[in-house]
Amino acid sequence: MTGDTAADARGGFGLARMRPRDPAQVFRAASPLELFFDLIFVVAVSFSSAQLHHIEADGHLWSGVVAYLLTFFGIWWAWMNFTWFASAFDVDDWFYRVLTLTQMAGVLVLATGITAAMEEGDYRVLILGYVIMRLALVTQWLRASHSHPEMRRTALRYAAGVVICQALWIGFPWIPATVQIPAFLLLVLCELAVPVWAESASKTPWHSAHIADRYGSFTLIVLGESVLASTTAVVEVADGSHHLGQLVVTGFAGLVLAAGMWWLYFATEVTERLDHLRTALTFGYGHYFVFAAAGAFSAGITVLLSSQMGESALDPVTSAATLTVPIGIFVLGVWFLILRHNLEGATQVLVPLGALAIAACAFLPAPIVFAALVMAGLVVLVERHRVAH
């Protein structure tokens, strides 16, 4: 049944029957509500990236990275679960919109708790926002189970699994600090296991082209936020600075890096690989590293600028690594999830080697310039392969 037909099957209070969307629907693209949803989530990404910059610039590299990765999981996982649900069951009635807006409110609550979580290890407000988002989605799954008997078992498994995980998360702030990270990782595994368990009952009818479009849209928004934050940092440092030439070079190289990240991500189609559960889960889960690396891009440039101005507690190589390593991870993730399935011959090997080379540019003088040169070379390499085939 198509989305339009499902929306016409109205019940009481003007609510639609939440029947599955047609996975073969033509021209399925992100809805305005989904794009609005992404923009709200990028607020949380921006907050976490800015906090990562402050912690790293103060010299606390590893604690900052760990806190960022833990915080980013909540942002990414809530976004991902809504995205796949909406691809299969979006009916766009007033209650669906209210529940989606409730999830947006939850991410804003989560965003207000990011500073306390990353600086002080106080996750109470962050978890409150996360639980709001997840329980709103439970309501959607219960609607789906009621409206479509064939998918009831899968929907109820999702609802039960999410509720159990949220009950465990609520108790997380009271776990002793010495075992918080192992406990966090255990809870993450529980969350990751829910879709695998639920989908084993029967596969939800997500729309492959829609999923690819949604992930591409979020990648664009995160990269755009990183470019905005990086440009703002360059402009602020340039005001009254005596290193204007160096700042211009840094800003231009940063643009080349961002453009290269965009180019590589959208160099080839991935839709046909999202029809099967195994490859779809790999694609969905693997984007944690892609999104987290893209979000850390602006933090890395800001830390590098602070180092160039003599305002960072980190040494120059480590400061440069806060930029080059996330970019290298991004390229490696894009190669693994998207590019490697369409590359052949030497190009198949040179792209991951290029990712490692970008990360290693931290050891060179003018690291951002050399990283930009390697990125430009990778773009030329992939584009020549694409044109040739």
Features:
mainly alpha, 76% helix, 389 residues, 2 domains
Structure in words:
- The protein has helices at about 5-10, 30-55, 60-90, 95-110, 115-120, 125-145, 150-170, 180-200, 210-240, 245-265, 275-310, 315-335, 345-360, 365-389.
- It has about 400 residues and is an all-alpha fold.
- Mean pLDDT is about 90; it is low at about 1-10.
- It is built from 14 helices and no strands.
- The chain folds into 2 domains: about 30-200, no CATH class; about 210-389.
- The chain is globular and about 65 Å long.
How confident is the prediction overall: mean pLDDT?
90
Number of strands: 0
Class of secondary structure makeup:
mainly alpha
Distance between the termini: 37 Å
Rg, nearest Å: 22 Å
Number of domains: 2
- Into which percent range does the helicity of residues fall? over 70%
Spans with pLDDT under 50 lasting ≥5 residues?
A: 1-8
Largest sheet: none
**Overall spatial form:** globular
Listing every helix as H and every strand as E from the N terminus to the C terminus, the arrangement reads HHHHHHHHHHHHHH
What percentage of amino acids are in beta strands?
A: under 5%
Number of helices: 14
